[in-house]
């Protein structure tokens, strides 16, 4: 599901779900500008009526500033 959402924006490369932390994913784009466009467009997107998706740039463990870190309710893990 996340791949379908983020792939509609130019520069999309991949989505990586973090199995050890349900509800967390990293989305990678070609550059920071492209990731910013996707982040603005999808900020607060509701995965389910009661679960808006907060999006922010990754804060650590990333060598690239264009990774987005999504904090998604654990429910979405089953929606992959």
TrEMBL record:
SUPFAM superfamilies documented for this protein: RNA-binding domain, RBD
InterPro entries: Nucleotide-bd_a/b_plait_sf, RBD_domain_sf, RRM_dom
CDD domains for this protein: RRM2_U1A_like
Gene Ontology molecular function: any one: RNA binding
Keywords, in A-Z order: RNA-binding
Signal peptide: none
Family annotation (Pfam families): RRM_1
Residues covered by the RRM domain: 1-60
Protein name, entry field: RRM domain-containing protein
Organism: Rubroshorea leprosula
